[in-house]
Amino acid sequence: MGPGDLRDVLGGLTQEEPPDLLVGLGHSDDAAVYRISDEVAVVETVDFFPPIVDDPYLYGAIAAANAMSDVYAMGGQVLFALNVAGFPRELPKDTIAAIFRGGADKVREAGGVIAGGHTVVDAEPKYGLCVTGRVHPSRIFIKGGLRAGECLFLSKPLGTGVIATAAKADACDPAVLDEAITSMLRLNRAASEVAQEVGVRGATDITGFGLLGHAAEMVEASGAGIALRAKDLPLLPGALVLAEKGHWSGGMKRNRRHVEHTLGESGRLAIDPSVPEAIVGLLFEAETSGGLLFSVPRERRSAVLEGFARRGEPCWEIGEVTEEAKIAVHA
User: What is the residue-averaged pLDDT of the chain?
Assistant: First the structure.
Protein backbone atom coordinates (compact mmCIF):
# COMPACT_ATOMS: atom_id res chain seq x y z
CA MET A 1 0.00 0.00 0.00
CA GLY A 2 1.32 3.43 -0.93
CA PRO A 3 2.14 6.06 1.71
CA GLY A 4 -0.86 8.22 0.88
CA ASP A 5 -3.33 5.33 0.99
CA LEU A 6 -1.81 4.11 4.25
CA ARG A 7 -2.21 7.52 5.84
CA ASP A 8 -5.86 7.64 4.73
CA VAL A 9 -6.83 4.26 6.19
CA LEU A 10 -5.05 4.91 9.48
CA GLY A 11 -6.27 8.48 9.84
CA GLY A 12 -9.40 7.58 11.80
CA LEU A 13 -7.63 5.16 14.14
CA THR A 14 -7.31 7.32 17.23
CA GLN A 15 -6.57 5.91 20.66
CA GLU A 16 -5.03 6.87 23.96
CA GLU A 17 -1.52 5.46 24.17
CA PRO A 18 -0.04 4.42 27.52
CA PRO A 19 3.10 6.31 28.62
CA ASP A 20 5.28 3.21 28.28
CA LEU A 21 4.40 2.97 24.57
CA LEU A 22 7.34 5.13 23.50
CA VAL A 23 6.68 4.76 19.76
CA GLY A 24 3.23 3.79 18.46
CA LEU A 25 0.73 4.75 15.78
CA GLY A 26 0.90 8.39 16.80
CA HIS A 27 4.57 8.59 15.81
CA SER A 28 4.48 6.95 12.33
CA ASP A 29 7.86 5.28 12.71
CA ASP A 30 9.50 2.06 11.52
CA ALA A 31 8.49 -0.10 14.50
CA ALA A 32 6.65 0.08 17.81
CA VAL A 33 8.67 0.49 21.01
CA TYR A 34 7.36 -0.36 24.49
CA ARG A 35 9.32 0.39 27.66
CA ILE A 36 9.72 -2.56 30.03
CA SER A 37 12.10 -0.89 32.49
CA ASP A 38 14.48 2.05 32.70
CA GLU A 39 17.07 -0.07 30.86
CA VAL A 40 15.04 -2.16 28.39
CA ALA A 41 12.37 -1.47 25.79
CA VAL A 42 10.84 -3.97 23.37
CA VAL A 43 10.90 -3.22 19.62
CA GLU A 44 8.15 -4.87 17.58
CA THR A 45 7.56 -4.95 13.83
CA VAL A 46 6.00 -7.09 11.10
CA ASP A 47 6.67 -7.23 7.36
CA PHE A 48 5.91 -9.69 4.53
CA PHE A 49 5.57 -9.64 0.74
CA PRO A 50 5.25 -11.85 -2.38
CA PRO A 51 8.36 -13.39 -3.99
CA ILE A 52 10.91 -10.90 -5.26
CA VAL A 53 13.26 -13.56 -6.70
CA ASP A 54 12.67 -17.05 -8.10
CA ASP A 55 14.91 -18.96 -5.70
CA PRO A 56 12.76 -19.87 -2.64
CA TYR A 57 15.66 -19.93 -0.18
CA LEU A 58 16.85 -16.47 -1.26
CA TYR A 59 13.29 -15.17 -1.19
CA GLY A 60 12.94 -16.27 2.43
CA ALA A 61 16.29 -14.78 3.42
CA ILE A 62 15.58 -11.44 1.71
CA ALA A 63 12.13 -11.20 3.29
CA ALA A 64 13.67 -11.88 6.70
CA ALA A 65 16.42 -9.29 6.24
CA ASN A 66 13.82 -6.75 5.14
CA ALA A 67 11.61 -7.41 8.17
CA MET A 68 14.48 -7.23 10.67
CA SER A 69 15.64 -3.95 9.14
CA ASP A 70 12.90 -2.08 11.01
CA VAL A 71 14.39 -3.19 14.34
CA TYR A 72 17.78 -1.90 13.25
CA ALA A 73 16.17 1.34 12.07
CA MET A 74 15.05 1.91 15.66
CA GLY A 75 18.53 1.22 17.02
CA GLY A 76 17.57 -2.21 18.36
CA GLN A 77 18.93 -5.75 18.46
CA VAL A 78 16.96 -8.71 17.12
CA LEU A 79 15.85 -11.26 19.75
CA PHE A 80 13.44 -13.61 17.98
CA ALA A 81 10.90 -13.73 15.17
CA LEU A 82 7.68 -15.45 14.13
CA ASN A 83 7.03 -16.58 10.55
CA VAL A 84 4.09 -14.93 8.77
CA ALA A 85 3.19 -16.81 5.59
CA GLY A 86 0.54 -17.64 3.02
CA PHE A 87 0.98 -20.30 0.32
CA PRO A 88 -1.13 -21.90 -2.45
CA ARG A 89 -2.25 -25.45 -1.66
CA GLU A 90 -0.40 -26.76 -4.70
CA LEU A 91 2.96 -25.21 -3.83
CA PRO A 92 5.45 -28.06 -3.23
CA LYS A 93 6.36 -28.63 0.39
CA ASP A 94 10.08 -28.59 -0.36
CA THR A 95 9.66 -25.08 -1.82
CA ILE A 96 7.91 -23.89 1.34
CA ALA A 97 10.59 -25.55 3.47
CA ALA A 98 13.30 -23.72 1.50
CA ILE A 99 11.58 -20.36 2.10
CA PHE A 100 11.37 -21.03 5.83
CA ARG A 101 14.97 -22.22 5.89
CA GLY A 102 16.17 -19.04 4.19
CA GLY A 103 14.33 -16.92 6.73
CA ALA A 104 15.60 -18.95 9.68
CA ASP A 105 19.21 -18.78 8.52
CA LYS A 106 19.03 -15.00 8.14
CA VAL A 107 17.49 -14.58 11.59
CA ARG A 108 20.25 -16.79 13.01
CA GLU A 109 22.83 -14.54 11.30
CA ALA A 110 21.22 -11.61 13.12
CA GLY A 111 21.70 -13.35 16.46
CA GLY A 112 18.05 -14.31 16.85
CA VAL A 113 15.88 -17.38 16.41
CA ILE A 114 12.58 -18.32 14.78
CA ALA A 115 10.23 -19.08 17.67
CA GLY A 116 7.00 -19.92 15.83
CA GLY A 117 4.59 -18.35 13.38
CA HIS A 118 1.33 -18.65 11.46
CA THR A 119 0.62 -19.90 7.93
CA VAL A 120 -2.55 -19.67 5.86
CA VAL A 121 -3.63 -20.80 2.38
CA ASP A 122 -3.31 -17.96 -0.14
CA ALA A 123 -3.48 -17.73 -3.92
CA GLU A 124 -0.11 -15.98 -4.07
CA PRO A 125 2.91 -16.89 -1.92
CA LYS A 126 3.65 -14.38 0.82
CA TYR A 127 6.32 -14.59 3.49
CA GLY A 128 7.83 -12.40 6.17
CA LEU A 129 8.37 -12.05 9.88
CA CYS A 130 6.98 -10.54 13.04
CA VAL A 131 10.22 -9.50 14.76
CA THR A 132 10.85 -8.76 18.42
CA GLY A 133 13.94 -6.82 19.44
CA ARG A 134 15.23 -4.75 22.32
CA VAL A 135 16.69 -1.27 22.71
CA HIS A 136 17.63 1.05 25.55
CA PRO A 137 14.69 3.47 26.08
CA SER A 138 16.96 6.52 25.88
CA ARG A 139 18.80 5.36 22.74
CA ILE A 140 15.95 4.87 20.29
CA PHE A 141 16.37 6.07 16.70
CA ILE A 142 13.33 7.95 15.38
CA LYS A 143 12.41 9.60 12.11
CA GLY A 144 11.92 12.87 13.98
CA GLY A 145 15.50 12.96 15.26
CA LEU A 146 17.03 15.08 12.48
CA ARG A 147 18.84 18.27 13.51
CA ALA A 148 19.97 21.06 11.19
CA GLY A 149 23.65 20.96 10.28
CA GLU A 150 24.02 17.20 10.60
CA CYS A 151 25.53 15.02 7.87
CA LEU A 152 23.34 12.43 6.13
CA PHE A 153 24.57 8.89 5.48
CA LEU A 154 23.14 5.92 3.58
CA SER A 155 24.34 2.37 4.21
CA LYS A 156 23.23 0.64 0.99
CA PRO A 157 23.02 1.62 -2.69
CA LEU A 158 19.72 2.24 -4.47
CA GLY A 159 18.26 0.21 -7.31
CA THR A 160 16.71 -3.00 -5.97
CA GLY A 161 13.24 -1.96 -7.12
CA VAL A 162 14.07 -1.25 -10.74
CA ILE A 163 16.32 -4.33 -10.95
CA ALA A 164 13.67 -6.67 -9.49
CA THR A 165 11.05 -5.21 -11.84
CA ALA A 166 13.29 -5.74 -14.86
CA ALA A 167 14.13 -9.28 -13.71
CA LYS A 168 10.42 -10.18 -13.61
CA ALA A 169 10.22 -9.11 -17.26
CA ASP A 170 13.33 -11.17 -18.14
CA ALA A 171 15.07 -7.91 -19.01
CA CYS A 172 17.86 -7.98 -16.43
CA ASP A 173 21.40 -9.34 -16.75
CA PRO A 174 21.85 -12.19 -14.22
CA ALA A 175 25.01 -10.54 -12.87
CA VAL A 176 23.07 -7.33 -12.16
CA LEU A 177 20.38 -9.28 -10.34
CA ASP A 178 23.03 -11.13 -8.32
CA GLU A 179 24.47 -7.82 -7.10
CA ALA A 180 21.01 -6.66 -6.05
CA ILE A 181 20.38 -9.93 -4.21
CA THR A 182 23.69 -9.59 -2.36
CA SER A 183 22.67 -6.10 -1.26
CA MET A 184 19.19 -7.18 -0.15
CA LEU A 185 20.67 -10.05 1.86
CA ARG A 186 23.04 -7.76 3.76
CA LEU A 187 21.71 -6.97 7.21
CA ASN A 188 21.56 -3.43 8.55
CA ARG A 189 22.94 -4.78 11.83
CA ALA A 190 26.41 -3.27 11.40
CA ALA A 191 24.97 0.07 10.27
CA SER A 192 22.75 0.20 13.34
CA GLU A 193 25.66 -0.67 15.63
CA VAL A 194 27.78 2.13 14.19
CA ALA A 195 24.87 4.53 14.51
CA GLN A 196 24.50 3.59 18.18
CA GLU A 197 28.23 4.08 18.76
CA VAL A 198 28.17 7.64 17.43
CA GLY A 199 24.93 8.64 19.14
CA VAL A 200 22.53 8.83 16.19
CA ARG A 201 18.98 9.96 16.96
CA GLY A 202 17.46 10.46 13.50
CA ALA A 203 17.21 7.35 11.32
CA THR A 204 14.96 5.25 9.10
CA ASP A 205 15.41 2.40 6.64
CA ILE A 206 14.77 2.74 2.91
CA THR A 207 12.11 0.27 1.78
CA GLY A 208 8.76 0.48 0.01
CA PHE A 209 8.31 4.26 0.02
CA GLY A 210 11.68 4.87 -1.65
CA LEU A 211 14.43 7.24 -0.54
CA LEU A 212 12.39 10.41 -1.04
CA GLY A 213 9.26 8.88 0.47
CA HIS A 214 11.06 7.95 3.67
CA ALA A 215 13.02 11.21 3.65
CA ALA A 216 9.69 13.06 3.47
CA GLU A 217 8.54 11.19 6.59
CA MET A 218 11.69 12.35 8.40
CA VAL A 219 11.12 15.95 7.31
CA GLU A 220 7.50 15.88 8.49
CA ALA A 221 8.41 14.26 11.82
CA SER A 222 11.42 16.41 12.65
CA GLY A 223 10.55 19.81 11.23
CA ALA A 224 14.02 19.93 9.66
CA GLY A 225 14.94 19.64 5.99
CA ILE A 226 17.04 17.31 3.86
CA ALA A 227 19.42 18.34 1.08
CA LEU A 228 20.69 15.49 -1.10
CA ARG A 229 23.59 15.52 -3.56
CA ALA A 230 22.60 13.45 -6.62
CA LYS A 231 26.25 12.98 -7.60
CA ASP A 232 26.97 11.23 -4.28
CA LEU A 233 24.05 8.80 -4.37
CA PRO A 234 25.22 5.15 -4.50
CA LEU A 235 23.56 3.02 -7.18
CA LEU A 236 23.69 -0.72 -7.72
CA PRO A 237 25.50 -1.80 -10.90
CA GLY A 238 23.10 -1.75 -13.83
CA ALA A 239 20.36 0.16 -11.99
CA LEU A 240 20.81 3.40 -13.92
CA VAL A 241 20.66 1.67 -17.32
CA LEU A 242 17.46 -0.15 -16.35
CA ALA A 243 16.00 3.08 -15.02
CA GLU A 244 16.79 4.83 -18.29
CA LYS A 245 14.88 2.04 -20.06
CA GLY A 246 11.84 2.65 -17.85
CA HIS A 247 11.67 -0.53 -15.78
CA TRP A 248 9.76 1.16 -12.97
CA SER A 249 7.63 -0.59 -10.40
CA GLY A 250 4.11 0.52 -9.54
CA GLY A 251 5.49 1.63 -6.19
CA MET A 252 7.67 4.30 -7.81
CA LYS A 253 4.66 6.01 -9.35
CA ARG A 254 2.66 5.90 -6.09
CA ASN A 255 5.62 7.22 -4.11
CA ARG A 256 6.20 10.06 -6.53
CA ARG A 257 2.56 11.13 -6.53
CA HIS A 258 2.50 11.13 -2.74
CA VAL A 259 5.70 13.13 -2.19
CA GLU A 260 4.86 15.62 -4.92
CA HIS A 261 1.42 16.09 -3.37
CA THR A 262 2.66 16.27 0.23
CA LEU A 263 5.69 18.50 -0.28
CA GLY A 264 5.63 19.67 -3.87
CA GLU A 265 2.32 21.52 -3.72
CA SER A 266 3.57 23.59 -0.79
CA GLY A 267 6.89 24.34 -2.47
CA ARG A 268 8.84 22.09 -0.09
CA LEU A 269 10.25 19.80 -2.80
CA ALA A 270 12.97 21.22 -5.03
CA ILE A 271 14.78 18.98 -7.53
CA ASP A 272 17.49 20.61 -9.62
CA PRO A 273 16.37 20.48 -13.29
CA SER A 274 19.85 19.24 -14.26
CA VAL A 275 19.40 16.00 -12.28
CA PRO A 276 18.69 13.29 -14.90
CA GLU A 277 15.13 11.96 -14.91
CA ALA A 278 16.38 8.39 -14.38
CA ILE A 279 18.09 9.47 -11.15
CA VAL A 280 14.95 11.27 -10.02
CA GLY A 281 12.96 8.10 -10.64
CA LEU A 282 15.42 6.05 -8.62
CA LEU A 283 14.96 8.46 -5.71
CA PHE A 284 11.24 7.65 -5.72
CA GLU A 285 11.55 3.95 -6.60
CA ALA A 286 10.51 1.39 -3.99
CA GLU A 287 13.39 -0.52 -2.42
CA THR A 288 13.49 -3.93 -0.76
CA SER A 289 15.80 -4.42 2.22
CA GLY A 290 17.44 -1.06 1.56
CA GLY A 291 19.95 0.74 3.73
CA LEU A 292 19.71 2.90 6.81
CA LEU A 293 19.40 6.65 6.25
CA PHE A 294 20.68 8.51 9.30
CA SER A 295 22.20 11.81 10.37
CA VAL A 296 25.04 12.70 12.73
CA PRO A 297 26.59 15.96 13.92
CA ARG A 298 29.40 17.03 11.62
CA GLU A 299 32.06 16.48 14.29
CA ARG A 300 31.15 12.75 14.38
CA ARG A 301 31.41 12.27 10.63
CA SER A 302 34.83 10.62 10.80
CA ALA A 303 33.66 8.28 13.57
CA VAL A 304 30.90 7.01 11.25
CA LEU A 305 33.33 6.32 8.43
CA GLU A 306 35.78 4.62 10.79
CA GLY A 307 33.04 2.47 12.31
CA PHE A 308 31.92 1.18 8.94
CA ALA A 309 35.52 0.61 7.81
CA ARG A 310 36.27 -1.48 10.91
CA ARG A 311 33.37 -3.75 10.04
CA GLY A 312 34.26 -3.97 6.36
CA GLU A 313 30.92 -2.35 5.46
CA PRO A 314 30.29 0.39 2.89
CA CYS A 315 28.65 3.71 3.69
CA TRP A 316 28.00 6.88 1.70
CA GLU A 317 27.65 10.49 2.79
CA ILE A 318 24.86 11.82 0.57
CA GLY A 319 23.80 15.18 1.98
CA GLU A 320 22.96 17.20 5.03
CA VAL A 321 20.12 18.28 7.30
CA THR A 322 18.90 21.84 6.77
CA GLU A 323 16.85 24.34 8.78
CA GLU A 324 13.82 24.64 6.49
CA ALA A 325 11.43 21.65 6.46
CA LYS A 326 11.81 20.77 2.79
CA ILE A 327 13.63 18.32 0.53
CA ALA A 328 16.16 19.65 -1.98
CA VAL A 329 17.97 17.46 -4.50
CA HIS A 330 21.08 19.09 -5.94
CA ALA A 331 23.01 17.92 -8.99
Answer: 95
